[in-house]
Design goal:
17% strand; globular; Rossmann fold; 159 residues; alpha/beta; five-stranded parallel β-sheet
Length: 159
């Protein structure tokens, strides 16, 4: 199980590390790097084209502002791509969200919320769990843990 997590700039790291941490908690190997759709476009394309050969099964691509990274990658790989829009100084990240989610037919990118690093990691785990039963089991336990937390919150309110 190997996932690539790429970000357009090192400034995205704080959000993106949340996805990386989730993946590692579930025992998924992570290839983590900076690749820019605009400043290193040839490298981004080459990386995406070779990802499957390198054993990568899914790519999480995070970017802000124009946020073309996920779309560029999805355009040249058969692997599933999850777009993680990063909140930028412009439009509170709405520009990033729209750039990631508005993909043309034939180039799908699953998209999570602005700065939704945790959900990007969890969605990657869910997608991989179709192939890996051990991930499905861990994810099911994770969901049960969430349920127990909410039940605890209700008991606290009733307290």
């Amino acid at each position: 199980m190997k996932v690539s997590v790429v970000m357009g700039s090192i400034s995205d790291r704080k959000v993106v590390e949340k996805a990386v941490n989730i993946l590692k908690c579930f025992g998924v190997e992570v290839d983590f790097r900076v690749i820019s759709a605009h400043r290193t476009p040839l490298e981004a394309i080459e990386y995406a084209q070779k990802a499957e050969q390198e054993g990568i099964e899914l790519i999480v691509a995070a970017a802000g502002k124009a946020a073309h990274l996920a779309g560029v990658i999805a355009g040249v790989t058969p692997l599933p791509v999850i777009g993680l829009p990063i909140k930028s100084s412009t439009m509170d990240g709405l520009d990033s969200l729209l750039s990631v989610v508005q993909m043309p037919m034939g180039v799908p990118v699953a998209t999570v919320a602005i700065d939704g690093g945790e959900n990007a990691g969890l969605l990657a785990v869910q997608i991989l769990s179709v192939k890996y039963p051990e991930l499905r089991e861990k994810f099911t336990k994770y969901k049960e843990h969430l349920k127990v937390e909410v039940e605890g919150m209700n008991r606290e309110l009733e307290g």
